[in-house]
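Retro notes (design track)

What went well: tokenization of the new backbones is finally stable.
What didn't: we kept losing track of which sequence belonged to which structure.
Fix going forward: every design gets posted as structure first, then sequence, in one message. First example under the new rule, 235 residues:
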């Protein structure tokens, strides 16, 4: 941590914006009060506002590294947008979710052949390198000025864009049907939810994420991050 960058280990069940709001409130409280002269000429004491922004969202169910920019550091946001990232994800095979994660409506795929470890290894290998990935409908991408997830929640079907992404490495950490745990190093803009779904499709059994943890952004590691409780913030 320095005066412009704060590394936070985001807990499950809170949005990235929720983390930003809590950190902003805490830092503003610590910054104290400032005298402000109103249009009526009256000087009033107001809490000093501290600017805080994040450099890449994590879904509410996900945990892990959020790189927050503070004060003048918020002007550096563009420096962080294209940084590579590392994640650890658990894919539940044999089922699908409308959102690609536990927050959606889950459907179990019946009468599937349980893939072997070799099957899984071969399927995973196909996604290493440059690949095309369809942006999930439940994402913050704007479609005609509207957030895609808002359109999806409203039941509106839209054609989601396909993007080229780069997956540098996928390591199988554990596989015990129906759960597959992987560590992956990817380019910015890669959706791990979409990767989990694609692996399930490749195996012919379906798949969705049950857990996701971001462990690295550029040069910063999760081991350097602080939990909200360590910052004196109620999570």
């Amino acid at each position: 941590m320095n005066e412009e960058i704060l590394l936070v280990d985001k807990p499950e069940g809170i949005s990235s914006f929720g983390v930003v709001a809590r950190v902003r409130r805490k830092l503003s409280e610590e910054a104290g009060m400032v005298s402000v002269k109103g249009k009526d000429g009256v000087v009033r004491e107001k809490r000093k506002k501290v600017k805080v922004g994040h450099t890449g969202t994590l879904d509410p169910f996900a945990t892990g590294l959020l790189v927050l920019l503070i004060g003048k550091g918020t002007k550096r946001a563009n420096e962080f947008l294209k940084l590579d990232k590392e994640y650890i994800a658990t894919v539940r095979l044999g089922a699908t979710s409308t959102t690609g994660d536990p927050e959606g409506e889950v459907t179990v795929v019946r009468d599937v052949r349980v893939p072997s470890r070799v099957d899984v290894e071969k399927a995973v290998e196909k996604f290493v390198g440059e690949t095309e990935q369809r942006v999930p409908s439940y994402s913050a991408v704007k479609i005609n000025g509207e957030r895609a997830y808002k359109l999806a929640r409203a039941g509106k079907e839209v054609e989601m864009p396909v993007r080229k992404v780069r997956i540098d490495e996928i390591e199988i950490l554990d596989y015990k049907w129906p759960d597959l745990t992987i560590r992956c190093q990817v380019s910015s803009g890669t959706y791990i939810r979409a990767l989990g779904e694609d692996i399930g499709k490749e195996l012919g059994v379906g798949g969705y994420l049950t857990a996701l943890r971001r462990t690295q952004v550029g040069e910063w590691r999760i081991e350097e991050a602080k939990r909200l409780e360590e910052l004196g913030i109620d999570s």
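Added context from the reviewer: The chain is about 20% helix and 40% strand.
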